[in-house]
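Note to self: keep these together.
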Amino acid sequence: MANTIDAFIEFSFKGEDYELHSTLDLDRQLERHMSLESMHHVLAVEHGIDTYSYLFEVMQMADIRYDNPQGRAAHYLRDGEFDFDAYAEENTTDALLAPLQAIALREMGVEDLELQPQLKQALLRAYRLGLEQNSHKH
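Structure:
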């Protein structure tokens, strides 16, 4: 089952009303960006709105409502608000555990990172630090 959520936004610009709706595939979004960027930006691109326009600036002032979470996304929706940071953190952590476990076994003989939470946390932090430093180079 896909991990998706529906996003809705309504706003007016120059006397015209806009109602935008998109179903977001959260895992595909994470694959592309390694983080969940501004959902306003995602909705604008999906609906052909120039992200350097006044229309986009007005759109950014409107709140996005979320509904119909599917898969693991259901755990992160509360009262129309979706916790993207927590979803991204869990998704990234789950995807990383197998390779980190392999490194711990190969380099230190640790067969189960769950039994060594400090080592697990250190490896995750080192990975994220590498991501941050790499993203600043581009």
